[in-house]
From TrEMBL:
Residues 282-295 have a biased composition (Basic and acidic residues). InterPro entries: Retrotrans_gag_dom, RTL1-rel. Transmembrane segments: none annotated. Pfam families: Retrotrans_gag. PANTHER family: LDOC1 RELATED (PTHR15503), TRANSPOSON TY3-I GAG POLYPROTEIN (PTHR15503:SF22). This is Retrotransposon gag domain-containing protein.
Length: 301
């Protein structure tokens, strides 16, 4: 039995390994190309996502304005917190620290800015009384600046509310701003609305057929009739002014007529003869005394 030559065996093994490597090269090339394409696609997607995010942030910053500044007015405290919550929802802000910082930055004026300054110092010093939760911040804010008895305040204001010289739509706005906080029922609100309405306007509504029934119908009819009454007053005023102007100022047509100037050296035309009307002499009374024919007395010597 012939013993295999070790060199031959080694050569055959190397040849087999080289053949295997040659077979794997196309696979590696294809895999590398696929990986390169995948990496490029991922990079492109990341770039697109970043652009979309920047566009979204840009749109949010341009289309969603910040809430109005709070200057310590009691009637606007509750609305300020509601406006902030709406802003945070639209801008998808969820972090409490950002919410609190935004609200503090919107507080202006002496009272509001002083309270904001104190709260900011507590937060920066990690004080135990620092308001770090947005819910706690809102509650403390309304407790400090808001109205603790909004129903009583609204009731007092609505009892004193009258239309006066205001337009009907302005009176309706003021009334609607108070009616919710009063807690009154529909009948009480309607009765109070009619009490504060202009008496002449209320009588005009009573003449309507059909008459309004609900508060909303009364308000709509009041605005319509008030607008028509104002338009009629304007038309009447303009008509009176026009008649007065035409009566008081009637320019003579000859004032604006063009007259030619006489030539230089030409004789001036004689002035027109006066337009006189002959008047008949009064008839003499035959019984009247003729002073001229009476005999004269001789002078006294």
């Amino acid at each position: 039995m012939t013993t295999p030559n070790p060199i031959t065996i080694l050569q055959n093994g190397v040849t087999s390994i080289l053949d295997g490597i040659n077979n794997l090269i196309p696979v590696w090339t294809t895999t590398a190309a696929n990986l390169d394409s995948t990496a490029q696609a991922v990079a492109q997607l990341a770039s697109t996502a970043g652009q979309l995010q920047r566009v979204e942030v840009s749109v949010a910053q341009t289309t969603i304005p910040l809430p109005e500044e709070f200057r310590g007015v009691k009637d606007k405290a509750a609305y300020f917190i509601l406006a902030c919550n709406q802003y945070f929802t639209q801008t998808k802000i969820t972090e409490d620290n950002i919410k609190i910082a935004t609200a503090l930055g919107l507080m202006k004026g002496d009272k509001a800015s002083k309270w904001a300054e104190n709260q900011l110092r507590l937060i920066q010093s990690n004080h135990a009384d620092a308001l770090t939760c947005w819910a706690d911040f809102g509650a403390e804010f309304e407790n400090h600046f808001g109205d603790r008895t909004p129903d009583t305040t609204a009731t007092s204001k609505i009892k004193l509310l009258i239309q006066g010289t205001k337009p009907a739509d302005e009176y309706n706005t003021d009334f609607n701003n108070l009616k919710i906080d009063t807690g009154w029922n529909k009948c009480a609100l309607l009765d109070r609305y009619k009490t504060g309405l202009d008496p002449d306007l209320l009588m005009s509504i009573y003449r309507c057929d059909p008459m309004p029934v609900t508060l909303k119908e009364y308000q709509k009819k009041a605005e319509l009739l008030d607008k028509k009454a104002k338009e009629l007053k304007i038309q009447v005023a303009q008509g009176i002014s026009a008649r007065r102007f035409a009566k008081s100022y009637q320019p003579d047509a000859t004032t604006y007529a063009h007259t030619a100037r006489p030539a230089v050296g030409a004789p001036r035309p004689a002035p027109p003869a006066p337009n006189t009307v002959p008047v008949a002499a009064p008839r003499r009374d035959p019984d009247a005394m003729d002073v001229d024919h009476a005999p004269r007395r001789p002078p006294i010597t």
